[in-house]
Amino acid sequence: MNNRLGLFLSVVLSFAFSSLTYAAPHGFYLTQQQRNLNALFNTQSTIAPSAQKVVYYGGPVLSNVKVYAVFWGKNVDATTQKQIGDFLAATVNSTYMDWLKEYNTNIQAVDGRTGTSQSIGRGSFGGSITIQPTHTGKKLTDADIQAELDHQIEIHTLPHPDENTLFMTYFPPGVSISIDGQSSCQSFCAYHEGFTSATHGNIFYGVMPDLGGACAWGCGFNPTRFDNLTSVSSHELIEAVTDAFPTPGDKPAFPQAWNTTDGSEVGDLCAMKETQLKTQGLTYVLQQEFDNSINGCAPGPYQNP
Question: Which residue(s) pair with 203 in the sheet?
């Protein structure tokens, strides 16, 4: 047996027997290992992206996203701390955002409910913020992250969110994150979520594990870790804009916004397909996103300003 094939099969089969569930759409950027596993067990739609479209389920979008880079403590990768803010600032004020107007919500949802009457446009960057998390463990659940974000808003380290605020949260090496029985680097590279705080209203956030260590393989094939991070970040950013309240499973419903009928978001349909953003002499790696108007992935490249 070919050694590479044998290694692939052993990884797939060992993961299959060690995992209780296979990752369902939940705002996830799946690892390549998980994509292979899903294909092997046919747990995701086999419809080609060009044969499906996203439809509107009645939930909110982020009209003019105001994104913050949130660093989970001082040990987040130094390159990420230094460069991710500039990337986010350039991305949300670029042509990458302009065509998303096709996902405006001044329409009727598939279940007949009235849409939220929002229009998607360019956004802004609110700044980079390093928090001192009260949860200092190396294993976090999504509930831990929600509680921490709520607390950091309460103590005014993070700003009080409005309907456009998105906290893109970056984690240090060695931190494992779990949600819905799935673990970072094993099943997913990143995800986005939203919840309603009892005191601070809707809170929308992205969870971006460090892409070294166990995440170094399967979360991108670019020459640098930072290029993989910008690609993954753009996936979650645009999915948060077009589907602020993702839910698990393959049967999307309100309060979700734009999904395929089996629960895939605009980033999922174009995962691992990349493009570029050019700005002020720099070039960033972005992921392509699904464009309903062409029934395929919007190819780019994109420009700022």
Answer: 195
What residue numbers bound the domain in which 251 lies?
3-12+21-41+55-304
User: How far apart, in whole angstroms, are the C-alpha atoms of residue 134 and residue 147?
Assistant: 10
Does residue 274 fall inside a structural domain?
Answer: yes
pTM of the model: 0.87
Number of domains in the chain: 1
pLDDT tens for each residue of 192-235: 999 999 999 999 999 999 998 877 777 888 889 999 999 999 99
Q: In angstroms, rounded to a whole number, what is the distance separating the alpha carbons of residues 274 and 286?
A: 6
Question: What six digits make up the tokens of 174?
Answer: 């060695």
Backbone angles phi, psi at 224, to 5 degrees: -125, 150
The secondary structure of 204-219 as a DSSP string is EEEEE--SSGGGSSSS
Amino acid at 2: N
Q: Tens of pLDDT along 143-155?
A: 999 999 999 999 9
Q: What CA–CA distance (Å, rounded) separates 172 from 75?
A: 5
